[in-house]
Amino acid sequence: MYFCEMEKLVFATHNPHKLKELRQIFPSLEILGLHDCNITEEIIEDGHTLEANAEIKADYVFQKTGFSCFADDTGLEVDALHGAPGVLSARYAGDGHDFNANMDKLLREMKDKENRSARFKTVICLILNGRKSFFEGVVEGEILHQPRGDEGFGYDPIFRPLNHSLSFAEMTSDEKNSISHRGRAVQKLLGFLLKQLDI
Ligand code: IMP
After folding, report:
1. DSSP E strands: which ranges in the chain?
2. Ligand 1 centre from 120 Cα, in Å?
3. The model scores a pTM over 0.70
4. Domains, the chain, with CATH or none
């Protein structure tokens, strides 16, 4: 598939928050979500690393649709918990993908911990014209003692990025995108696409 045909890029996600974030970052491309491609099933992410899970999702979409596509996988790595929840961030409190339950569990695990340092890491796997590339973005920060803010999703209310006074959930989506793990990984993806696709 050549670029002039490729204004469409499938983002392998069911998460409307992530789709919204990505559409803001890529105004010049039409980003489709899984629902737009009639993929309603959950893609099983049974890899042991963020890279493996991103690749599993991108492979799945490429095999089903044949479209250029990308998938991301994100983990929150907490130093005092030896890197947990990490690759299990979505299912930390069980299989329900319940953001509040995950956050509550993390706050419980961190109750007596002095070292609050943590980082979000995103890995993106892009399949462009059948070729794979990987991009990584990281944001360092700390786990707050209590949730703050109503924006965003997931662990946003309890994560404060380094050198910022607001939690991710107290920032606008533009503020968050400009410094976030996914924002940084996506900027690398964007730079790559601009070069490859000459846009
Ligand atoms: P995913 O791989 O992007 O689905 O992310 C796995 C889990 O990490 C999600 O279920 C969220 O709990 C959490 N997560 C991912 N991205 C973010 C973010 O930007 N803010 C807060 N939590 C996130």
Report:
1. 8-11, 30-32, 69-78, 85-86, 117-128, 131-143, 159-161
2. 8
3. yes
4. 3-197 (3.90.950.10)
